[in-house]
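Write out this protein's structure.
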Amino acid sequence: MRKKSLIIAIFLVVIDQIVKISIDNFLRYSEIIELIPNFFYISKVYNTGAAWSMLSGEILILVGVSLIAMLFLINYQKSFQNNYRNTMAFGLIYGGLLGNLIDRIIYGHVIDYLKMLIFGYNFPIFNLADVAIVVGFILLIYAVIKGEDKVDSKNKRKHKTG
């Protein structure tokens, strides 16, 4: 893991945990606060699974998968060009994974609170860590499309900003 990605991850984990603790302390379970009518809400729920509540209750499996994913990504980052976007992408993913991993280990569930209604579809509730993971992976996909997932000798010196 590169130092700047680690700094981004730590910053994200701190913000993620502060928000989750605040939501947990100040909202009742399933309470809904409307921020943008018919579109965006805050609502506290506990998710014992992964995205869309897959593997609900399988905390050990989810912790194991998170740790394996983290190790894979740390190794995978070495093959990417060391630029700002890639550094940010990996930092966001690490931070998101760690934020949700902390919840699973400490509470046995993840605290989700962002709720959206999109064209009548009640999108599953998610959190900041989930957003970071998705944005990070979108940035990585873009990097792969641009060919930034392969470091060659002339690019090693050129991309030392991340």
